[in-house]
Amino acid sequence: MKRYKTKYDVVIIGSGLGGLQCAYILGEAGYSVCVLEKNKQTGGNLQTFVRDKSIFDTGVHYLGGLDEGQNLYQYFKYFGLMDKLKLRKMNSTFDYITFDNDETEYKHSQTYPQFIESLSEQFPKERKNIEKYCEGILNVCKTFPLYNLEDKDPLADGEENFFKYLSIGAKNYIDSITTNERLRSVLAGSNSLYAGIGNKTPLYSHALTINSYIESSYRCVDGGSQICRILTKAIRGFGGEILKYKDVKKLVFENGTLTKAETAEGEQFEAKYFISNIHPHLTLDLLKEQKIRKAYVRRIRSLENSTACFNLHLVFKKDTFPYLNHNYYHHIDNDVWRYVGYTDVWPDAYMISTPASSRSEKYADCMSMMVYMRYDEVEKWSQTFNTVAQEESRGEDYEAFKLEKAEKCIRALEKKFPNIRSCIQSIHTSTPLSFRDYIGTSDGSMYGIIKDFNDPLRSFISPKTKVPNLFLTGQNLNMHGILGVTIGSIMTCAEFINRSDILKKIKQAQ
Ligand SMILES: Cc1cc2nc3c(=O)[nH]c(=O)nc-3n(C[C@H](O)[C@H](O)[C@H](O)COP(=O)(O)OP(=O)(O)OC[C@H]3O[C@@H](n4cnc5c(N)ncnc54)[C@H](O)[C@@H]3O)c2cc1C
Hints:
Blueprint: E1 7-13, H1 17-28, E2 33-36, E3 48-51, E4 54-57, E5 63-64, H2 71-78, E6 87-89, E7 93-99, E8 102-109, H3 112-122, H4 127-142, H5 159-166, H6 170-177, H7 181-187, H8 203-215, E9 217-220, H9 225-237, E10 241-243, E11 248-254, E12 257-263, E13 268-276, H10 280-286, H11 294-302, E14 308-316, E15 327-331, E16 349-353, E17 366-373, H12 396-416, H13 420-423, E18 424-430, H14 432-439, E19 470-472, H15 481-493, H16 499-508
Parallel strand pairs: 1-2, 1-13, 2-10, 7-15, 13-19
Antiparallel strand pairs: 3-4, 5-9, 6-9, 7-8, 11-12, 12-13, 14-17, 14-18, 15-16, 16-17
Helix pairs in contact: 1-9, 1-15, 2-16, 3-4, 4-8, 6-8
């Protein structure tokens, strides 16, 4: 006997952060909601996994804007997260940007005065330019109302102003600030946060991301899956359902109206409205032969995805490797915008982070290293599918491939931490195929659809689709990242509830 209903006001496909936040907002507003998740674990990129008793994150290394009065703080307050999350504030310098053959660890520090001060110490002749850079970042951030919890049309200050910022490239902007090549590379050094591409990434992707961490930077203690757990409890408290092992394969139409979501097992969930938290390409796949506007389908299908990545996960022997309350972004040279696959050196850039554990603030349990990797590197194993719930060996040659990549990563790390090898207890890895199988993307893309300043409106995805009762949410909508997805969920729910009312509640949340 089923313990759940099969008829709701809203069915949400996918339990990533966007799906859960929509379920929360609509559930709280009295809609009956049901989230259908294909996996054993909910949360999508919020998932954590344990290796040798150490907790690793999938997609939440750090969070910005969580000091009282800042944007994510207030959004999280509304979602009932702020009082329950276990957080650790990162060091004043939250990111170090480093390069081969350069001893200096360049600083990205929290708060604008400190950011300017610490970089000006490292680039004494560049203070004015660093100040100008910060002023520009802040000006861009002011242009996005929901980023500032403002109930305002983005075009209120004039279309010209808004579109001006959408059409500026991040690299072009940074290059215009200074001719100092090293400073340019330092300012853009953490661009794997948004998979920056020199001739595509808009300035706003850079500005909204970096500003958030300059405002304040935090890590989740014992992993980001706590965000998922807290939201799940609240959604169930509103009477909502979150069902696992429900792999939606089809959206069913009756007399031209979307009425049901059907799972791989043939179970049907009926609703008045549907929200898809999965990639727009895959959402189109669910529509099967249903006819929708060709121009819309063509535009969505033509949008390219951001790169995938390889992750090295190291478990350390107890009390051997220090806990680093900051991240490193390392590059082999100044060409930090080279993106992926243009050099024979691998890894040519990486990000490392030691997850915050409640066990110790002095020593790290483990470390994650993230390196771009093209999907075609693993394509020959694409016929295999491997998750905890559905295990399948990808073969010995795949294991050898991962081992070889892991060894290259460890050699790169040894340049920074000469003793690191002796601290390692066990080595684990994930590839673009792991992301594909766990998150359900087609190519393991990290952040979904690429934003392009050359044609900004083309890559803008509206929460509305050409099917009147089907909406989109998640990282492809507005911006990726915890803050970007949060703002996207407000945009999606504003199709159901007056946006002013949602924002009022958010601002009043205590
Ligand atoms: C390596 C990495 C590091 C990151 N680090 C950070 C960071 O430090 N800070 C930060 O703010 N952001 C970070 N991000 C980005 C952030 O994690 C994501 O942007 C965000 O979590 C995406 O949320 P989403 O709502 O789009 O859902 P997703 O996380 O994409 O989840 C989608 C869900 O839908 C489910 N699903 C898919 N298909 C189906 C189907 N057919 N039926 C049912 N369910 C389905 C999936 O199983 C999944 O649970 C990182 C991302 C990556 C990849």
